[in-house]
Amino acid sequence: MASLVFSNDELNFITDKTFFKKKDDVNSKVINQLNELHQKLIILVKDNNESVPESVLKSSPKISRGENYQGFPWLVLDYPRIFNTAGVFAFRTLFWWGHSWVLTFQLSGNLFQNFRSTILSNLNSINVVSCKIGIGNDPWIHNPHDSMYIQLKKFIASKNNSVEKIKSQPFFKLIREVEFSQSENLTEEAIAFYSSCLRLLKT
Description:
The chain has helices spanning 8-14, 17-47, 54-57, 109-113, 116-122, 152-157, 160-168, 186-199; strands at residues 62-69, 72-84, 87-96, 100-108, 132-134, 149-151, 171-178. With 203 residues, it is an alpha+beta fold. It is globular. The termini are far apart.
C-alpha cells in the first residue's frame, strides 16, 4: 500500500484553522442575508396574493445547506416553496461557493399548467437584465452557465419556436445570476427578479 504523502502546500492548507473560521463567518453572513430576503419576500408574495395559489401563500421558508453541488458548498433559501406530487412553485435563492448567487423561479406539474397560457401572454413584458430560461430536460440544474439555459431575450425572439417550447415542456424555469461582488445589492436584485416573475402570472 502506498504511503500517504502531503505536499507542503497541502500540509499548510489542512493545518490552517483560519479557513474554517472564515467559512463559518461567511455562512453566518449569508444566512442573515437570506433571512432578511425572506422577510421582504413575505411582503412581496402577500402584495401579489391574487396571482398565486393559496398553498403558495401558506408555504413556509426553508434555509438549507450542503457541501457538494457540482463539487462546491452551498446555502439556499426556498420561499415561497411548494414541492409535492401536484407540482413545484418555488423561488430559490442559492449562494454557491466559488461561483455566485443564483436566483431561480421554477414551476411544474399542475402549478405550471394553471399558469401556462398566462405566462405565454406575458412573457414579452418581462424585463430582467441577464435573465435566462431553462429549455433542457432537467429542471434541477441550477448552474446558470449550463447549456440548458439561454438568454430570455433570445428565446423570445424565436417567436413561434419559443411558444411551442413552453407549450410542450413539463416545467418552466427562469434563472438570474448575481455576482458575489454585488452581494450588497442581493436583496434588491432578488426582489426585482421575483417581482418580474410574479408579473408573469397576472391575468
